[in-house]
Design a protein that fits this description.
Elements (H helix, E strand, L loop, with lengths): L1 H14 L15 H19 L3 H6 L3 H7 L2 H11 L1 H5 L2 E4 L3 E3 L2 E9 L5 E10 L5 E10 L6
Antiparallel strand pairs: 1-3, 2-3, 3-4, 4-5
């Protein structure tokens, strides 16, 4: 519940077009870590768009992989609940934030009808140092694309 409340606060800030803390200003995160996070998300999005469930699932945290079990189940979940990730005409990473220890990477999605959503990725650093996606929440924005 705390993470959902945090996500709503971020969406509110984005919707009002306030800037989040820049990655370089976060006391616990360096620019290289944000770049690695964005690379993980980008690679998963590429795999999802290509229909490669095995590769897409490889970027998910162990808990997510356990929850969905198979690449087919994972892809079915994405198609049913996260379609805008697959169909957005434009995506843009926004500045990430560390909030109460949670690493949140927002991604602005612009649909073909110019509606705007924000995908709020929760990231988890693994013991081997790699970043994995631990969750994603899609939230509407009051911003309209042109």
């Amino acid at each position: 519940m705390v993470l959902f409340a945090v996500a709503l606060m971020i969406v509110s800030a984005l919707s009002a077009e306030f800037a989040l803390a820049a990655p370089e200003s976060s006391p616990t995160m360096r620019a290289a870590e944000w770049a690695a996070i964005r690379q993980v998300i980008g690679k998963q999005l590429d795999a999802l768009k290509k229909g490669d469930g095995t590769k897409a699932m490889s970027f998910a945290s162990p808990q997510i992989r356990l929850q969905f079990g198979t690449p087919d189940n994972f892809m079915a979940m994405v198609k049913s609940g996260y379609g805008p990730l697959l169909t957005a005409r434009y995506t843009e990473f926004l500045d990430g934030a560390v909030i109460e220890g949670a690493v949140i990477q927002p991604l602005r999605l612009i649909a073909h009808d110019n509606t705007v959503l924000v995908a709020l990725y929760t990231m988890e650093k693994q013991k081997d140092g790699r970043w994995k996606i631990a969750g994603c929440v899609l939230a509407p924005s009051t911003v309209q694309a042109t």
